[in-house]
Amino acid sequence: MSHYxxxxxxxxxxxxxxxxxMIRTILWLAAIPPLIFLLMVFGYSxxxxxxxxxxxxxxxxxxxxxxxxxxxPAPK
Length: 76
Hints:
Blueprint: H1 12-43, H2 50-62, H3 66-71
Helix pairs in contact: 1-2
């Protein structure tokens, strides 16, 4: 005979806190990729410090150069 855990009921306050937590988490997860992309675009610019340029090129290379494919010159 298997034993099932009792259902976990939330009161309205706990439900509201959980919704707020989920909204914060989803917003952060939605904001992180564009922020990383912007940092990497800046890393390819001439204004970036040399260490950031090197790190950006290395990180972009690890992922198959998706940022460089977007911002790089088009092949002729």
